User: Fold this.
Amino acid sequence: MSSVESSASAPIAIRLSDIYKSFGPVNANRGASIQVARGEIHALVGENGAGKSTLMRILGGMYAPDAGKMEVNGRDVTGWTTAEAIDAGVGMVHQHFMLVPTLTVAENMMLGREPTSRGQLDSARVAREVTELSKRTGLAVHPQRKVADLSVGEAQRVEILKTLYRGAKILILDEPTAVLSPPEIDELWRVLRGMRERGETIVLITHKLDEVMEISDTITVMRHGQTIAQLTTTETTPAAIAKAMVGRDVQLATHYGETSSRSLELPSASLLEVRDLVVDGPRRASAVDGVGFSIAPGEILGIAGVEGNGQTELLEALAGLRPVRSGSTSVAGRDITALSVKSRGDAGLSHIPEDRHARGLVLDYTIAENLILGQQHRFTTGVRLDNDAIIDNARRQIDAFDIRPAVPSVPARALSGGNQQKIVIAREMSRGFQVLLAAQPTRGVDVGAIEFIHARLRETRNAGKAILLVSADLAEVLALSDRIAVMYGGKFAAVLNRRDASEEVLGPYMTGAEHAA
Amino acid sequence: MIVLAFLAQTLRIAIPYLFAASGGVISERSGLIGLGLEGYMLGGAFCGAVASYYSGSPWVGLLGAVAGGAALALLYALTAIRFRADQVVVGIAVNLLVTGATRFFLRLAFHSSANSPRVPGFGAEQSGTGLASLARNPLIWLGILAIAVMAWLLYRTPYGLRVRAAGEHPEAALSVGVPVDRVRYVAAALSGMLAALGGAYLALDQHQFSAEMTAGRGFIALAATIFGRWDPFRAALACLFFAAAETLQIQLQGAQVIPSQFVEMIPYALTIVALAGVVGRAVPPAALGKATE
Assistant:
């Protein structure tokens, strides 16, 4: 383990030494260490399943370590509780928000340490304090709104305010940008820098290297539960960090790999043809408001846009999961508008859903079972499932898609996000298909798996299939697409050839500032 | 006068529902399914009758009922929380256990398989049906109070906030240091006490415990909890609705126009219709029935 002396003179805020933690047979932390000086932004990086979140949850008091020593501001705090951590000023913003959706913002703020006057909740006082704090930090929230009604970005603001409201001086953020749009990310960086100026300490769990380079002062790299390297941001490169994370050289695919140079003229025989599609949404009258496009064989159409502009509804409608109000969809010339999910699959449509937990996997099923979901009728002898064929199929896919652990009988729940996603992708790519709907194919997936998944998508494109890609990650859309559509307010605000698109060009369309389609 | 008599009868029938449904609300809002309400009621009726019989005071009877209901509910909570048993299964088991146990102890204490001897209760010996005689029964007021207090507890106190968080997103509650399990034990105990008061009302009103005297009222109260969308006031309205249906049934029974078997179905048929009608809109607490990690 290479060690760099922490930035000169600042006192140490966090020092975790030789932390061990296992959950049953899984060793999440195997001698992990981290050291963070007060007043710095520290990036904790590593692939999914490297043990970053576990280590930080230990620091936040949610788990007690099996072995090792924890110090905060020089005090031994080994094995403290959540309440003790909060009292000592350590706050954590979890990847999956720890907010109660049915309660108001103010109620979430005070939960756990409720101020009272004469035995009753003092909601007025909390609302006042929250508004004040909101002004001071520049994080705008409405105390009386229900959390369920907030956008993801707003919910995250509430999460951060919640920890500050509890007096956090050390803030841990677990993959905070996974759900944010580019402007929201800039806003977050502004807030974090402001906190750093006030002498507060921030640990940022992430695996996005551009974020690490942009915001952090120092870096700890973890792999397989151990600390691999401690680095100073100004003295390292993304390639070096990626290598430490994965343990080998990686092709950093996020920036503009080769794309086929296809022109905007409508290709004669399109594989996916969508006409005037209108889809009802939960709130707006039409979540998808008259969208039409076609995708040619060997083409990737990428849809960029801030989440919540109809991408989810569009994809679900195409997949047959959501009813359409009007419009038509055809695959390879066959109208599939009225077909069931299963018939669509038979017609040559494959779908990588955006939320692998909700739609992609049955977490308690094994890898082998998840790999045949939706195609179980092809793995039968008589009325019985053919277990030999299922295991055979699983071994082939595990091998082809490098799913780890390579054990067909392990439940999907036990796998890291990247490996869970590989199951979904393996399943959807192993069926005979012409058109692939890929929604957020690399969300919450580590660098190594992203590289792998991108390579597979390009192979599929090069094999003459059509791919509709939806991603909240603009870099991903730019890296993979031949044409790019920007979705705003349920419509395509622009459709551009890849060579005409860049973050600068797409940005105004994403925020609705420009329309061109 | 007929209207007044109808209202008096409805209120009288509604009181045990009000107690049990306020217990159902707090239990379910904390994340514990209220399937044991029937058992707590029956247990409360029995303990109330026994305590009243031996002490000679219905007030001591109430204390006995509260203690019995709390004990049963804590047994349920312990099994569901500590030992992570399936709440539906344990809830049913509690009900079966209480049915058998009350019969057993009835025989042991009073040498009867059906009834206890006459026990001191509230209200006049010849309990009238008018509103005036109802008003003299302190349990009527307690039952109405239970709903108001439950609403205050749930929406205005720190404990209530914690209950709502525990039933909706226990991980979030845990992450800010709320002891979710403890919150649920307290909620269970409260629900047991309240439902037991509802049972005690039955026994003390009739000055007697008889086997299986709750006759499914705990389940009706659970239905009212759900029909009331887990809100104390709406649940109270649901209780009054079901009680009115029962009153109607009793009045029609006297009229002898429809076969009595059909008339007796009215409250239950209405329960099914009511629940089916709200089922689309009724969103239960998200963590209902789930043990914490």
About this structure: Confidence is low (pLDDT under 50) at residues 1-7, 253-267 of chain A. Chain A is about 30% helix and 25% strand.
